[in-house]
Amino acid sequence: MDIINAIGRRKAAVARVYLREGKGTVTINDKDLKEYFPLETLQYIVEQPFNTLELIGKYDVKANLNGGGIKGQAEALRLAISRAFVKLDATNKPKLKAEGFMTRDPREVERKKPGRPKARKRFQFSKR
Predict the structure, then answer these.
(1) From residue 16, how far is each of 5, 67, 123 by CA, in Å?
(2) Has residue 15 got a pLDDT over 90?
């Protein structure tokens, strides 16, 4: 089997994934999954496609992650892994789509406007 690659994005994070048959190791930027994402909730997010398709321990994942924060990176990685599994076998798509793993979350940070402290916040109004 050859290597399958896919890309996933979330907020400012970009994940490039290379999937191949193996023992189930997940390597992110040359680090182990548990080392890169020390929080168990983030590890769970990354492993969700494997759990949904019951493919734990059958595929190795090598990922390049950059940009964004750790939560955005974990969700970008989940999307990339899901897309790679669909490239591997198209019958996986309905299960992953039902769980919401195939949808790219379009929400981005709104830009700060001039004359305001943040994007929508305004300075306190004084009548007198």
Answers:
(1) 7, 12, 41
(2) yes
